[in-house]
Design the sequence.
């Protein structure tokens, strides 16, 4: 189905674009709804469009040589995905799957490339996203070199933590234990044991879909190896 221009204007990427351009652009955009565990971007495919997540949750994953999923990054509402393949016009290097029922908007790659060339603010947003994705990838690579599962879990939680408007440190949409496990290359059972330890010690606390970080210093000390496990 086509997309209302007001939906597009909810995304930071399109806020700098005048309504006179957004209205015709919206005719080429599509709104897609997918169930949980649906592949929404295939690996080794040329990007025909940029995806922008409206609601739900997605994850970028790759497959190891022995067929296991390796988590790369999460895509949260109002973020976008597939930008690298759109920019360099080379095949995608990962899958993107839905972790929950999700809705996302697709905009043809040729339109995004035209906006990058003609609207400096759009180019700046795309470039900033590419830079952030690179930093996330480098941080994830460093995380995987940590010797213990406890260190890896703590480091992963630190990466996902944000400070909300009330000043609390939280993970707004906390990943499941399985989702964390494929990000840090351990078993789900291992992540569950670490979570139990952290909850028992009052370091983290569940609050609905969110995870409250009660003691970020503890996580930092463990992740850095400064504190004994």
Sequence:
């Amino acid at each position: 189905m086509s997309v209302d221009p007001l939906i597009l204007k909810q995304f930071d990427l399109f806020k700098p674009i005048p309504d006179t351009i957004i209205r015709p652009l919206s005719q080429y955009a599509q709104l897609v709804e997918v169930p949980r565990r649906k592949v929404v971007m295939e690996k080794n495919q040329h990007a025909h469009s940029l995806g922008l997540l409206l609601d739900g949750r997605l994850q970028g994953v790759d497959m190891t040589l022995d067929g296991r999923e390796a988590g790369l990054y999460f895509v949260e509402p109002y973020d976008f995905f597939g930008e690298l393949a759109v920019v360099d016009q080379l095949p995608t290097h990962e899958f993107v799957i839905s972790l929950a029922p999700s809705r996302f908007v697709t905009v043809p790659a040729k339109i995004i490339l035209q906006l990058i060339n003609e609207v400096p603010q759009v180019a700046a947003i795309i470039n900033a996203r590419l830079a952030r994705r690179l930093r996330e990838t480098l941080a994830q690579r460093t995380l995987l070199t940590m010797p213990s599962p406890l260190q890896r879990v703590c480091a992963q939680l630190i990466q996902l933590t944000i400070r909300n408007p009330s000043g609390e440190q939280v993970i707004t949409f906390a990943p499941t234990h399985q989702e964390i496990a494929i990000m840090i290359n351990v078993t789900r059972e291992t992540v569950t044991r670490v979570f139990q330890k952290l909850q028992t010690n009052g370091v983290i606390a569940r609050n609905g879909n969110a995870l409250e970080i009660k003691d970020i210093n503890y996580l930092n000390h463990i992740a850095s190896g400064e504190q004994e496990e």
In short: Residues 153 and 161 are 12 Å apart (CA to CA).
